[in-house]
Specification:
Helix content is 39%, strand content 22%. By secondary structure, the protein is an alpha+beta fold. It has a four-stranded antiparallel beta sheet. Strands 5-6 form a two-stranded parallel sheet. The radius of gyration is 17 Å and the shape is globular.
């Protein structure tokens, strides 16, 4: 599956399986995302990643919106929703509600160089037992990460 991200004619577009999806426009070197187009792309990408049964539910829009403005670093809207861009986020919910799927999906809307990495907390603890403190230092050097299944 080839995924291309490109900026053309002041539009931010992602190509998936030969089809282009415009997520927004570019003005002054800043991507201005269109929420409706971005949600539409996330629905398509979700079906690609998780199967045709994937669906974004209306009751999840508020959470998805907050995650999106955090991920794209929308300072104005983050301020309105009391989201501190200098801190991480903690996404909680019952087992099987889609936290991991959502975080795996959302990362695809930003350019590749700004995508965060997903890491299993269990694997990190195993690495720490094996290699010690150096493992924690290695995570401090990355751009961004999502720890999954903290428990």
């Amino acid at each position: 599956m080839l995924k291309l991200i490109r900026i053309m004619a002041n539009h931010y577009k992602i190509t998936e399986q030969g089809k282009e999806y415009s997520l927004g426009k570019i003005k002054d070197n800043i991507i201005h995302y269109d929420l409706v187009k971005t949600l539409s792309y996330l629905d398509v990408k979700g079906k690609m990643l998780f199967g045709t049964h994937f669906k974004i539910y209306e009751e999840d829009f508020k959470t998805i919106y907050k995650l999106l403005i955090y991920i794209i670093r929308d300072k104005e809207n983050c301020k309105k929703h009391n989201i501190n861009l200098n801190k991480g986020i903690l996404l909680t919910g019952p087992i099987g509600c889609g936290k991991t799927s959502l975080m795996s999906l959302i990362r695809h809307i930003v350019p590749k160089e700004r995508q965060y990495q997903m890491h299993s907390a269990r694997n990190i603890s195993f690495e720490y037992q094996k290699d010690g403190h150096q493992i924690i230092e290695n995570y401090n050097k990355t751009n961004g990460f999502c720890f999954d299944d903290l428990g």
